[in-house]
């Protein structure tokens, strides 16, 4: 599809990690942005070798905002079936009595359909790609590809099933499903994985030269237990096994030692924060200000819908900024600009999606339109701060992935009927009760 | 208007502060609920003396949810003009350099228009009434009445202007504007109000037999300074002046002593929590679990849009539950049911709106329709938990106040053109820059 957006406010990312908003047009040809400007210098574009374009659609943005889609840098998408299934319970009983026994009953086909439900929710929230850890990565990746959604799969391998041979197979499958799907090496967490298996995983990451991600230092007890076991924190342990030879990072990163911070800096690792989940499971508040002060790049993730319980990036962005403020007792720390940089650029880099990080000629057209003509976005004192501190899913008018509009004015264009997706999710959990 | 809702899920409040969801019809005649049931016992209704009804509208709810509107139990609505005007600043500089100098320039007419912008945002979030403290209460109340929105005004009196004679005048005006407007005695806070003025305010509350509300123990330094001044906490000080003879309560209530808790229990005071504002201004996390354990009734408020920056009740409800969990390191504490009870019933009682607290025959028709056919509300494992933990403004299909639909399918029906409301808000802040 070739789409010309005009009469738009356009969100541009500057070199110093800040933003500016310009008025103009943005053109998408197939899956890429080919022009951003005032529309007056069109001849120049064609002089650079672009063919004349037949527009499939010309969209009047009505002075609303075009911006890069949000990158959900940690989630377990297909856990949609357990949303609100067993909340307000102590963590252990939630996990062992409610979650694990039902996850054990999931089929690859179940996961395919549950993933689609999650993708729909991502689209309503302006999320254009996810970094997904769950059972059956090839089925999750296929669901994404079939919807037109961009996914980066990783493995949740641990002692309770699977091995690195299967992970390598999944790595190869997910990396061969076309440009919407990729795979980065990962595993569940130190506390669920024996040392020997972690060594195998490190060897695989080195063999395929992949970054490596895992849950890391999500709870205080996880860190204490690891120190008891190995005399090392999870970060130190993973690093000592050679897991970060090609970079990577950690999900959650709530309880970090000075040495952990040093390892993240030395290895160029990403800290992915999951504020909603960390609150709801009573895990704690991550040291976001510290990461930023140290120059550690950060992504933001929703975590899975069973622990969150939504896949709402506006909630995550709001909390990334405001929880830091209350943690540090400093209303000035962690700005809206810093959070939007994580939500778009750093998140994309963390997921290996360097060509989806910003609105720029040549980048992939993973972008969203935010409705500024709603009361929560008025007055327009500062659009950046309005997005982070007052924005909501309701402001998402359109979500485009890889040049295709997948969601527009509350309607989905993913090739699946929402009612059937909902019915299937209810049937899957209904079967298990 | 007479409106018959059918094919609905209906949210009913039970005596033990929990809820059940039943299928059926809900009828509104003029401003009241006159029937809830399966529609099969209609004759019985008329046998009880109801006249036959000519329906103005019959609405197929399509198995979505009708529930009581949310009560915003603390806000400064007309601060919309300062939304995102000066964030990510230290509290003192935000207040003294940005907020106060501009508030001083507001006219009554400005406040009227800025209030309408806030009301529009309330409606998008399912809020059907507000407990509002700001300059010019009669103008704020008039804006509400003109929109058809329900408001409870209070005074923000302090040492920087006004007196109790003006407050009494405002009390009389706001209580005479019809059933959508009322006034409860209040003042800004101990830290902005001399003892002599607080004594006058206490005398006025006793004279008119009103409950009394004020900001209370929002920050640690506020409490420390009060103890230094009087040897008493703000709660103790206010109580010692006879301010709570007819009940009332406090806004924020983050730093509470044992004796404060005792006073709240003894006087039957309401603790109104404002979690978004408390995070964003780095004030702290309120002891919500403690209030609930002690049986202290609670309301939830957005605070003003300059400190929040939105007027989004879903964000507040989510944080009321989840901040308690992280504060107490207990994922099981403060349930979704408890939060919804605050958001609807306790909030209404706190504001003196006993006839707006639940869906029941004879109660005022302050109610909302939530769209359950969206991905964040599926599967329907538990609708109550879905609302609190996964709900968003996007799920609000309709907001009805006093029997009149003011917001439906993202369109407003308040007698004002949104574009003009936005333009006016931009003009007001533009004038001040």
UniProtKB/TrEMBL annotation, chains A, B:
Domain Amidohydrolase-related: 66-406
MF terms in GO: hydrolase activity, acting on carbon-nitrogen (but not peptide) bonds
Alphabetic keyword roster: Hydrolase
Pfam families, A to Z: Amidohydro_1
PANTHER family, A to Z: AMIDOHYDROLASE-RELATED DOMAIN-CONTAINING PROTEIN, AMINOHYDROLASE SSNA-RELATED
The protein's name in its UniProt record: 5-methylthioadenosine/S-adenosylhomocysteine deaminase
Native source species: Eubacterium oxidoreducens
